[in-house]
Amino acid sequence: MVRNVLTEVTGVDDLKEAYKVLGLPEDADRETVEKRYFILLRQARARQMRGEPAGADPAADPEAIDRAYRLIKAEEERKERERLRERLYGKDEKAAERKAKIEHFFHYYKYHLLVAVLLMAAVIYGVNNWLDHRAEQRRLASLPPPDLEIHFVGAFWPIGGNLDIENMEPVMLEQFPDWQRVVARLSYVPQEMQTPQDFAFAQKLIIDLIQYKPDVYILDELHFSSLVSQELFEKLDDPAFGDLADAIPEAAKRLGQKENDPVPALYGVDISGSPLLKDWPLIIPDSVIAAVRVGTGRPDKAREFIERLLEGQVPGS
């Protein structure tokens, strides 16, 4: 009979019986249940070791004690889960169940959702970039072809800090009223490398020199000297430029020598004293050199640009 007590425990009556087995009131707290359980279990096992029969008292049977304890503990855990559920999701059982399912979904699939969100963001970013590129291409297609493309290289810093120097075009169109469009780009590189950002600017210059195909370079003295030996600049006494070389004052001529040059040749023009520079929206270094890119498709405009810069130039500036 003792071994049949609490064999199937599912209802309130069984829970009451469990407390009776342990000799505790139904409102006993967990700590009291724990202490009583271990005391009764030690006593029951001690009687077994002495060979004393358990009789009809379930409190003397270790198996009955253990089942009663497990039932009370399971009920306590159920109540604790219920209290936690109500605290997290409220007392409405259906609403709580929905909230719990949603929370479990996000808990178990959070990484899947994160990947999906990142993929969606990448797709949106890519589509927006593509649309922006298409819009920019349509805008450029609607513009007249450039009369001249210019690449500033070196310690030129835009007034206002915008490295795109878009405000350079209207200034140059005022200086060259017969032209319809000028494209100006800037690769800022300081003359002294002091910070990691300075080295980043120098690395970017390498990419820009490969990417951009201007007609004219405007450089500081340092970068003209370092680039003149490369295959970037055209000789200014080339027949494509007419008598440009004769129009350049001796003091303004800047020579350089490539590997295939037997002697130094004319590759640059010092335009530091040109009054046109004062209107450019740039902080300009002391020495400014103009050079023409090898293979330019606009030699006449390049010549016109340089000759215009030489007009009114203050000697020795």
Walk me through the structure.
By secondary structure, the protein is of the alpha/beta class. The chain folds into two domains: about 1-90; about 145-310, D-Maltodextrin-Binding Protein, domain 2 (3-Layer(aba) Sandwich), CATH 3.40.190. About 50% of the residues lie in helices and about 10% in strands. It has ten helices and eight strands. A six-stranded mixed β-sheet has the order 3-1-4-8-6-5. Strands 2-7 form a two-stranded antiparallel sheet. α2 runs antiparallel to α3 (about 60-90). The longest helix is centred in the middle third of the chain and has 33 residues, at about 110-140. Mean pLDDT is about 85; it is low at about 1-10.
Shape, per Cα inertia axes:
rod-shaped
Structural class: alpha/beta
* Termini Cα gap: 118 Å
What is the residue-mean pLDDT, rounded to a whole number? 84
Question: What is the CATH class name of the largest domain?
Answer: Alpha Beta
Low-confidence stretches: 1-12
Percentage of residues assigned to helices: 40-55%
Order of helices and strands: HHHHHEEHEHEHHEEEEH
Give a quick account of the main beta sheet: strands, pairing sense, barrel closure. 6 strands, mixed
Q: Supply the CATH architecture of the largest domain.
A: 3-Layer(aba) Sandwich
Strand order of the largest sheet: 3-1-4-8-6-5
How many structural domains?
2
How much β-strand is present in the residues? 5-15%
Radius of gyration: 44 Å
CATH topology title of the largest domain: D-Maltodextrin-Binding Protein, domain 2
Number of strands: 8
Number of helices: 10
